[in-house]
Specification:
The protein has 504 residues and is an alpha+beta fold. The chain is 29% helix and 26% strand.
Length: 504
């Protein structure tokens, strides 16, 4: 009996493993040359992306003719890790709106106020009464964006509808709350959260299973941000749009709606090249993109039959990354017979598997290590919710025990000249501080760590939350009982200083 149970659980484990594997290796693979792309051009793109300042590349995928021809996940990242993609989420909302319209549940001309009779202000302005679903889709609602509203209130719909409204349709104002209201409308007319609706209509057929979406305090998918997804699933969705809604011969998303999503619906002036329905037109003629904060991109390039996915954390202008695609990759693409494989393809194979984000530089140990080993360092109040740290120093490894103010306790491992990975149940730091922003996304979260002593009195740690987006640089400067911690977040150029005291 025991043997049968063991075999049963082994089978379940193998099935789960196979499911995850299929999730990340489902798109057909090919060589660049077989699809008319020189490997040298792909190398030039990858190398240039990896060389960008103030940028950590987490993944790059290049598709042509629906096949993956190149992909890189610089260590410590990996293809199975999900990623928060910020405003790329908006395009998923647009797809849900189009599906609801195709089912006659919704119209572009529907008045927004008609869906929220119990959350309207006492006095409804003519402009609020005139605001339509289309105005939300093309970011011309007339509401001036208030990016702090989600951080201070929980009644987001009422807060949005209570804002002063200018004449809808006249002025482009990019606003994540417009996407949130669309998410709420879709939930009203379908009886399902947007994620559940898309699962039923698109994702099940596309085998996009490993996906989550943050939920607001009102129980609605956040819409303008919050999708948590693997890079390959992003690539699948980009390919669906490139195929005008067709997936494996089946029309999942109406072609006419995809055309409208990717057509210019708003003039953005100096702020880009135009906006569709929750998609951006690009510098490269005919290209369109999903676009998220800190450099999350799905580039759809119809004239080359290509999709390029980039996930990263960058503090530089995203036009730089896109320009590398336009200048390094696209000019080399040909439509003639397949190219001949050569040495560049072998170089590409080697490079794709060897890219690595920088580890911390310095010495493996310090004479001070023994003095501070197994001592608790109590911290002053801080935004991260850290109460104390404790260090164990091993050969070419540091284990840091973190105790948070809410009592959660976990270990993080840091390797010398290499990455050490840990699994934690605690939530990672996040650039969005909206109330209830982690609802709908569960751990565990994985952290890869590197350490070194750049100076005898300074221990530097780098922590990448590899299935999120966040990375932290932690520099501990030891001076007797006093410890000064300097924290740099990869999503901010500001450094934060936290004081600490050593306790026995």
């Amino acid at each position: 009996m025991k043997n049968k149970l063991a075999l049963f659980f082994l089978a379940l484990s193998l099935l789960a493993s196979a499911t995850v594997s299929a999730q990340i290796r489902e798109l057909e693979r090919s060589t660049p040359e077989a699809e008319g792309v020189p490997s040298g051009a792909v190398i030039a793109l990858m190398d240039s992306l990896m060389g960008l300042p103030k940028t950590d590349i987490h993944s790059v995928m290049v598709l042509r003719h629906g096949k993956v021809i190149a992909e890189a996940y610089p260590a410590p990242f990996a293809p199975e890790y999900r990623h928060t993609v910020f405003s790329c989420s908006k395009t998923f909302v647009s797809a849900a709106v189009g599906l609801a319209i195709s089912e006659n549940r919704l119209r572009l001309t529907d008045r927004v106020a008609s869906f929220f009779s119990d959350q309207l202000p006492d006095s409804i302005s003519a402009n609020l009464a005139d605001m339509t679903v289309r105005n939300l889709l093309n970011m011309t609602s007339g509401v001036t964006p208030d990016w702090n509203m989600r951080n201070v209130r929980t009644d987001w719909i009422k807060g949005y509808l209570g804002k002063q409204v200018k004449v809808p349709g006249e002025h482009f104002d990019y606003d994540s709350m417009s996407s949130y209201i669309l998410s709420a409308i879709v939930q009203k007319v379908t009886g399902m959260k947007v994620l559940d609706y898309l699962r039923m209509k698109l994702f099940e057929s596309m085998h996009i299973t490993d996906i989550s979406w943050e939920v607001s305090p009102e129980g609605i998918n956040t819409g303008g941000w919050g999708v948590y997804i693997q890079s390959e699933s992003l690539a699948k969705f980009g390919q669906l749009l490139l195929n005008r809604g067709v997936w494996k011969g089946k029309q999942l998303l109406p072609a006419w709606w995809v055309d409208q999503m990717m057509a210019k619906q708003s003039d953005t002036g100096s702020f880009g090249y135009g906006y569709g329905y929750h998609m951006w037109l690009c510098e490269y003629p005919g290209a369109i993109r999903m676009d998220g904060a800190l450099g999350q991109y799905v580039l759809i390039i119809p004239d080359k039959d290509m999709v390029v996915v980039i996930t990263e954390c960058t503090l530089i202008d995203g036009a730089t990354q896109r320009r590398l695609v336009w200048n390094h990759l696209l000019p080399a693409v040909v439509d003639s017979q397949p190219l001949i494989l050569g040495k560049d393809y072998k170089r590409l194979q080697k490079k794709q598997s060897s890219y690595q984000l920088p580890v911390v530089r310095g010495k493996a140990t310090s004479s001070l290590a023994g003095e501070y080993a197994d001592k608790s360092i109590m911290l002053e109040s801080n935004k991260f919710g850290w109460q104390s740290f404790n260090f164990r120093f091993k050969q070419k490894e540091v284990i840091m025990t973190v105790t948070e103010t809410d009592g959660i306790k976990y270990d993080l491992a840091f390797g010398y000249k290499q990455w050490r990975k840990s699994s934690i149940e605690a939530y990672p730091p996040y650039s969005i501080e909206a109330k209830g922003h982690f609802n709908g996304i569960e751990g565990p979260f994985y952290v890869a760590g590197s350490y070194a002593w750049p100076f005898p009195s300074t221990l530097e740690l780098k922590a990448h939350y590899v299935n999120w987006i966040t990375a932290l640089n932690l520099a501990f400067r030891f001076d007797g009982e006093d410890v000064q911690l300097t924290v740099k977040e990869n999503y901010s150029s500001e450094a934060k200083v936290i004081k600490g005291k050593v306790c026995d």
